[in-house]
Amino acid sequence: MAENAKPKRRRSAGAVVEEPALAGLELRPPGLTPVEQEAYRKLIDAIAARRLLPGVKLVEEDLAGIFGVSRERIRRILLVLSQHDIVRLEPNRGAYVARPTYAECQDAFEARLLIERNVVRALASMGPARRRMIVSHLRRHIGAESEAIAAGDRVAEIRLSGEFHLKMAALAGNQRLLRMLQDIVAQMSLALAAHTHAHDLDCSISEHAELLDAIDAGDLDRADHLLAHHLEHMEAALLHGMHGEEDSLAAALGEIRSGNA
Amino acid sequence: MAENAKPKRRRSAGAVVEEPALAGLELRPPGLTPVEQEAYRKLIDAIAARRLLPGVKLVEEDLAGIFGVSRERIRRILLVLSQHDIVRLEPNRGAYVARPTYAECQDAFEARLLIERNVVRALASMGPARRRMIVSHLRRHIGAESEAIAAGDRVAEIRLSGEFHLKMAALAGNQRLLRMLQDIVAQMSLALAAHTHAHDLDCSISEHAELLDAIDAGDLDRADHLLAHHLEHMEAALLHGMHGEEDSLAAALGEIRSGNA
DNA sequence: GCGAACCATATTGTGCACAATCTTGCGCAT
DNA sequence: ATGCGCAAGATTGTGCACAATATGGTTCGC
To answer: Which of A48, A68, A121, B15 is 20 to 30 A from B66, comparing alpha carbons?
Structure first.
């Protein structure tokens, strides 16, 4: 009687089911109607897949037309996105896909390392049964990553690579840390798109597999070490790509890559 | 020529100045006009000072009258607050000050411990000169806390106690971690208000002083240990207060303490 | 007397119209 | 030819009016 009003859902998102902890992965910003959440998710997807690049102007009326909703709804969505540092709102000028600065990236990396180390530690120190469950799920995910690479599907590869980290966080069970990481991953995706030219090394899949092995074995130190390496790898690549261009002419010229449609 | 457009600011907020890193303390949600940010800040202040209790209904028109702005502005502010889990927006029912659940508090505590340990570690491992600067600032803050206690100003005491932690984060220099902690502290303030009856031990000031001594001495391990103790102290008190009442009759009855004006 | 449907009121949700602001392109003077 | 100013168009910002929904009390039927 006094239970929640969500009797029978689950088993609707296709492949990602059977594991309740993964339910938190779905983006559900509060205060938005289902229709708005849909559009919100599509925007985030577009960013994760690099279809929306940093600096692109998001014209309200255009978005309204694309998603088939009114301009005020778009307006609310943009406001929410701005709270998560995914969109930059300039007064009287409009909304732009965020272009993270050097300092922001450094901060984000520090936060990410902090969160993910905690996540991996949590996973690796769970009971054997639960750990087996988790590892099995993540191995399947890596399988999907491999397929995407084999098929040459660059977009899917990028998306799945980021999702791997989010799935780990979801499985660790802390909703708050998961949401923090979601924001960070999105921002990092933007930073990589903006400042990295050869983004061949977003996330090497072999490192994912090794990390998973360590978790499987319950080897805390090794898992921690591998993760730290993995992330510092990314950080070095990104921060190197950004080195010196920040707030400089190059960054300004980089803004050219706007252009709608 | 290619520098930022912030030539000479600073030195405007009265007592809290002379330290650039503390500038990040001021709440500035993006996408809100200055007028809206003002109202936003007042709402957060009211929550930090326990003048706004969890579960209280926030009627749009009332707030509009109080702050002297239009209803649509209030609407935007509430949407932003909902993104930070400070306000719960129920469709067609209205906005309510959030009442964190047991699970949310656990997650928040884990995140908080993670962030603050990193903050304290960062502070304690800074160079001697910088460390002296920081410690001096924080000691002055503790002085203010003492005064509030001596004067019997309960409201100021609560506010300053929470602010101590935020100042440490601000001085550590990571903006993103700071903002995360701001959200967590606000939520925790709500949780304490909602579920703790004798909230005499929000934060004991002597623990702040001890922690600061350890940072001053550059004693990483001791600082880390003291912080962990300090927070676990709080956690135990809160989670004990909440034990069993979650989603139960008690929680439902607790909603009675609404009443506007 | 009890319960259920109904209506009045209060509150939130949404679309629209217009105001404010920025951008762009043109023309004019130097 | 170059730079300045101005006007037209495009885009964002805001208030208002009305629709949709929830709430609480009342009345009617059993």
So the answer is: B15
